[in-house]
Amino acid sequence: MSDRPSVDLSGLVKAYDIRGTVPDQLDEDLARLFGAAFVQTTGAEAIVTGHDMRPSSPGLARAFAEGAAGRGADVTEIGLCSTDGLYFASGMLQRPGAMFTASHNPAQYNGIKMCRAGAAPVGQETGLREIRALVEGWSAGLELPATDHAPGSVTQRDMLGDYVAHLMGLVDVSAVRPLKIVVDAGNGMGALTTPAVFRDLPVEVVPMYFELDGTFPNHEANPLDPKNIVDLQRRVRETGADLGLAFDGDADRCFVVDERGEAVSPSAVTALIAARLLTEHPGSTIIHNLITSKTVPDVIREHGGTPVRTRVGHSYIKAEMARTGALFGGEHSAHYYFRDFWFADSGMLAALHVIAALGGQRGPLSELVDQYKRYAASGEINSVVRDQQHTLTQVRETFASRDGAVTDGLDGLTISAAEWWLNLRPSNTEPLLRLNVEAPDTETVARLRDEVLAIVRD
């Protein structure tokens, strides 16, 4: 029984994971309850856990393991790992898993990403709501239900070598020519996985910020923010490297920089990987969220595949991939999902595909990805909006009939014409509307962007 006061977990339990500040929102007592609730909800007899390099992660992960073992589950701790390393362990061992990380969030944050056996996601609709309810009840001092099971064991296992072998079996790198690659690990888990995965490749790695340090002394481990890849861009140019790679804190996302130090959009990376995989598996389904460039479905169709459009968010992508048996999926946020990786996302597997594509021909990366840069885009623009629905209605009424446009409400409001599209969608957690615009040229993008923002920010 917990003797802590009842807690409101609404600020801690998100749509797809648990994430908050330590220790005021998440501490070891609470992690222990989450471990017990995870086992009760999944009915697991055995689970696997892993954690990132944040100072609070080992203690939180061990407390979770204690709570899980107390409910009768045997716990395998794989220790320091990337999030896709945890997904690998869940898939290979066919056990539910829990990864302790706050991904790209600042150092004072931590959290738990949970999955069922085979790396199947746990979100609000797939167990997270029940887990929250149990923890809230137990934190009020309620007795944990009695269990007939004896306490489970807690053991350790190193699975990094197995993870590397699995990834290398999914991408043919036999034709890769010698390359120089700058890798910015951002003091995160890419510093652990990169040397192991790249060890037998014909590449020279120029390491940046490879010291595991969850206080992030150099920059935030969030390469989606352009300011956090400035160091990488500079080093690529200074060293004459063939490409640069940047990983976020838990290394489940990978960002790419070409030999000129220019960022390659995640949509271009999605299109490149889709084209490669469709050559090997013609006729397959490829998933993309509705914020990726129109280039992505164009390329999928050109290579004989079937594009399927989804909402933003990994739980939606993974569910649609499982439903359709999709070969691959990509998001604008640089999450890349693979059927042969239990439909889970892996930044390192995406990086290997980029390396194989570049290293298998003689031209530079900029030339290789030029064919996937067909449109101009605004990037995501956030605006604070008090009445989101009223604003969405105003934008719909203004643009819906322009240029023969059609609208849909898959995720917020999308308005699509022959030559352009825009999406305006609410944040799940903040009073924000997020705008994305794409068109054939920057002038059209700027005009549409400014017209929408004049309504949104009025």
The tally of beta strands, per DSSP, is: 23
- Kindly give the count of domains: 4
Low-pLDDT sequence parts: none
CA-based shape: globular
CATH homolog superfamily of the largest domain: Alpha-D-Glucose-1,6-Bisphosphate, subunit A, domain 3
User: Share of helix among residues?
Assistant: 25-40%
Mean pLDDT: 95
CATH class of the largest domain: Alpha Beta
* Largest sheet data: 7 strands, mixed
Strand content: 15-25%
Structural class: alpha/beta
Fold-level CATH name of the largest domain: Alpha-D-Glucose-1,6-Bisphosphate, Chain A, domain 3
Instruction: Work out the helix count.
Output: 14
Instruction: Quickly give the CATH architecture of the largest domain.
Output: 3-Layer(aba) Sandwich
Cα Rg: 22 Å
Ends distance: 53 Å
Describe the secondary structure blueprint for this structure:
Elements: E1 18-21, H1 28-42, E2 46-51, H2 57-70, E3 74-80, H3 83-93, E4 97-100, E5 109-116, E6 120-121, H4 128-139, E7 154-156, H5 160-168, E8 179-184, H6 190-198, E9 203-208, H7 230-239, E10 243-247, E11 254-257, E12 263-264, H8 266-280, E13 285-289, H9 295-302, E14 306-310, H10 314-324, E15 328-330, E16 336-338, E17 344-345, H11 347-359, H12 365-370, E18 376-377, E19 381-384, H13 388-399, E20 406-408, E21 413-416, E22 421-426, E23 432-439, H14 442-456
Parallel strand pairs: 2-3, 2-4, 3-7, 8-9, 8-10, 13-14, 13-15
Antiparallel strand pairs: 1-5, 4-5, 5-6, 10-11, 11-12, 15-16, 16-17, 18-23, 19-23, 20-21, 21-22, 22-23
